[in-house]
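Annex B. Sample input.
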Amino acid sequence: MVSRVTFLLSFILGSSLMGSLPLAVQPAYAEINGKPKAVVELFTSQGCSSCPPADKVISELVAEGEVLALTMPVDYWDYLGWRDTLGKPEHSERQRAYAAGRSDRDVYTPQAVINGQVHVVGSRRESIDATIAKLQKASSDPSSSLPLEVRLTKTAEALTISVDGTEELGENTTIWLVFYDDVHTVDIERGENRGRQVEYHNVVREMRPIGMWKGKRTEMILPLSELAKSGYDNCAVLVQSTINGNPGPILGAATLTGLSS
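Annex B, continued. Sample output.
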């Protein structure tokens, strides 16, 4: 049974209502990308002298293309003398919520959170790789540590999000639309990294909940033109469980690059 949803853009994108786009009258969908091995979120700060090596690790992961690596700049080091030009309080809140969900107080930079489950020091590439391998070994899919299949396909008019699989759910499982930019190059003028120029890759600019996943195949359609108007380079979809009000394991992910192309 397929649950198919076309959303009000006033809810998703702050725009007008888009009518349903029947599959029968659309050209054949072209698959955008395969299933990533894992999702790696790096919580980093321009005001943290330990972070540039971790930012470089993310650039390596992005270049290799096997995982969905996302940079989440935080704002809680701004008081040290340099306001992070990419930092967002929402990222700091997400990192703290992860710690609350794990029942620990481990909020630091650089911190890499893998599949919403395990955290390691973000500059330690060997720890990231070992964690992904361990999660992958425990997965039923030898090619990925993520149990759900999430596909993003598009026509000239629309982006279709498909979620397939059956998993034990937390209290809620949310489908997130994540907008991110390819790269930002920042000249840091003050603070611990004063005088350094740092490149940040796959920088998250916005996250929006666009629906709930209820454990069966789900399909939703978004207008590609409105996504392109966001002004961001790319978008990703995360299917993530919520446990006791906090973000839990990421069950599936997919990404679409080049929103304007």
